[in-house]
């Protein structure tokens, strides 16, 4: 999404009636510059580098109920994918990783995740497009996405 910022993407996501209820956790190097009360509809905030205990607390705090332990991580940054995978596996989750929305759609052919951790800003199919397609065209449209 070279033509918009993450904040603009978040505003668009929250303006879309089909996607406005998706919980969004902001993870950013500049996240600390925003006040928690002014997060454009996001449910939580983490500042990079992400602390493992804070990440676990955010995931636990933002899931209405525990559905299972299969997690699909979708992020274009290899370091972020490996960080999330490692920490989620230490917490007992089975983790599948994808580098963009296209890879995530392919992963859904063989994996039934209980949770999807999704980066919005990615080359190729970005997170917003993946989420729109997941919610409108996929049998797993009810999977929680953070």
Summarize the structure.
Helices cover 36% and strands 15% of the residues. The protein has five helices and five strands, in the order αββαβαβαβα. The longest helix is centred in the middle third of the chain and has 13 residues, at 78-90.
Mean pLDDT across every amino acid position: 77
Instruction: State the total count of DSSP E strands.
Output: 5
* Tally of contiguous helical segments: 5
CATH topology: Rossmann fold
Q: Say which CATH homologous superfamily is assigned.
A: Response regulator
Residues in helices, as a percent range:
25-40%
Main sheet: strand order = 4-3-5
CATH class: Alpha Beta
- Major sheet: 3 strands, parallel
| Cα-based radius of gyration, to the nearest Å | 14 Å
Q: Which tags fit this structure?
A:
5 strands; 146 residues; two-stranded parallel ribbon; Rossmann fold; globular
3D architecture notes:
With 146 residues, the protein is α/β, with parallel strands linked by helices. The chain has a single domain, classed as Response regulator (Rossmann fold, 3-Layer(aba) Sandwich). It has 5 helices and 5 strands. It has helices spanning 6-15, 52-62, 78-90, 101-107, 127-137, and strands at residues 25-28, 44-47, 70-74, 94-98, 115-118. The strands form 2 sheets. A 3-stranded parallel beta sheet has the order 4-3-5. A two-stranded parallel ribbon has the order 1-2. Helix 4 runs parallel beside helix 5. The longest helix has 13 residues, at 78-90. It is globular, with a radius of gyration of 14 Å. The model has no long low-confidence stretch (mean pLDDT 77).
